[in-house]
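Task: encode each sequence below as structure tokens.

Item 1
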Amino acid sequence: MLDSIHANQAKKMVEVNGISVPYAYSDFDKEYKALRENIVLSDYSHYSKVKVEGDEAFDLLDLVVAGDVAEIRDEQTLYTVILNDEGEIITDLYVMNDDDTYILLCEHITADSLIALLEPYKEDLDDVEIEDLTKSHAMIAVEGPYSWELATEVYGMDVIGIPFHGFIALDEDTFILRAGKHGEFGYKVVLPVDQAQELWDTFEEKGEKFDLVKAGLELHETTRLENPYYNPKTVGQFSNDPRVLQLQWMVRYDKEEFAGRDALLEKREQPLDKKLVGALIQSEKAELPIMANDQVVLEGESIGVVANVGYSPSLKQLIAQVILDEAYAYAGIDAYKIKASDGSEYSIQTTATPFIQNYSMIVNPNENSYVNPDKHKNMLDQLKAKEAEAKEEAADA
């Protein structure tokens, strides 16, 4: 969609859901630092985008998704999953409610596949229409602790008031959604393709003073390990059971009907035998022969498997998601080891996730700024300044 821009700038392109997007733009460390400390600009046009409208649009979606669509009002978004007949996750997705017209955003399956999941439930409904917006609409994102500040320069101060998983509809074709899978502030702009290049250029131009960096999907693979979200390419290769993956919060069990409900409720009657937890690998090395499918052992006996592993630049160590037998799936245990395929063993400490404390947690859009010299960059700097001021006043007293 933005091929003319990316072709001359991106280091590597990939095709996802039939859409070509950047996998890497420049230096990974530079992109990572920008996401965690200021702002990155990314092209998320590979997300499948589907509009569902009509008097029975709510009825259709509430039959399909596992979350409760009734919980979201106008300009609110539900982050949930769709299950198969076995009660396992097919995909996660965002459901945006725009005055009872719904926009679905989904990155892990194509729009055709998403529509195919909706169609069987549409047969008994008369007033509902489904439209694929994937190729007519792009999605551009600014993300990072100060992305809100750049977004306000482009769209005005109303951006600051958007709650997490809320959005603003600028018109019937353009939406600003506050969402992200990395723990930082993030704003995704869904807009017609013919307006995308102008917005990209605007963000680039206005983002210079914020030290904005363009970023590709490679970056987001790492940040989604540090702040875990459902990923069918990693943990999904080992389990898609929302209970095992600790994603029960994405399912509304007391709904009377939704796809996969009966199978999921039947599973709930059975004891849970495995559970996903985080693991800190006790080594200072950035690279080790550890990979997915390696065994987690206790005194030589297998108690689980590595589902995902990677290096955390923030923690400066390797981290992993491991699926353990339920009896051993607790945080804070340092007795386990990962046995690599070459026979070497590495000590781990299990931990709750997310793995890191995000910088965005100490940035207050109402009081802080990246570019305004009259404001502190974050709340810690504010606190230190107040403490220093108090000490000076005490010394002068």
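Item 2
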Amino acid sequence: MSKLSLTEENYLKTIYMLTERSEAVHNQSIAQALQNTPASVSDMLKKLTKKGLIQHEPYKPIQLTSKGREIAINIVRKHRLWETFLVKCLGFTWEQIHPIAEQLEHIESDLLISRLDEYLGYPKYDPHGDPIPSPNGDFQPVEGFPLSQAPTGKKLKVVAVKNDKKDFLNYLNKINLFIGSHIYVIDRISFDLSIEVDINNKVLNLSHLIASQIIVNHEDNIQ
């Protein structure tokens, strides 16, 4: 198979990440994720199907083939390792790293990525809490649940965020909520499903939308 273009790699990665979030992948969801037109997406899906990288049948969810999944996982692995490097070694903050890692993830050298993984100490999760696949594609899933589903009166810890958009992460910066932050659900507001929380000893009200993007776990369950 000929070398894939950056666009083709981005499509495979997007399909993988939508699947990772337990979403049924369709033309429209890819178009929304990549901010492309449905017509452009349809053309690319035909190319990827012809190359044996996806399975695409009318009115059915799009799926990666084993080869397509292998390529996608490798791109995701590189992306998340570079994000970790940018934060851990170069002092970037978590809202700055995604677009830079988008460029670095297309570097082809397997040796470089292997050395990068070793240099970082073989991290299991990136700065957003997403799992980093191993060279053979294995990874340790994030153990937790959305803050929007958390019980009241329990000590919790933030383990991941489901949204890596800059505006969302900047808001979390503003309220001093990061991976590892301690959080306590004080009350639920039935009218709009928002929750009252104590974050690092500061009481705040979070909307249901924001709370649904924050993954937490009971402190006793975190290893």
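Check on item 2: The longest helix spans residues 66-90. The chain has a mean pLDDT of 93.
End of task.
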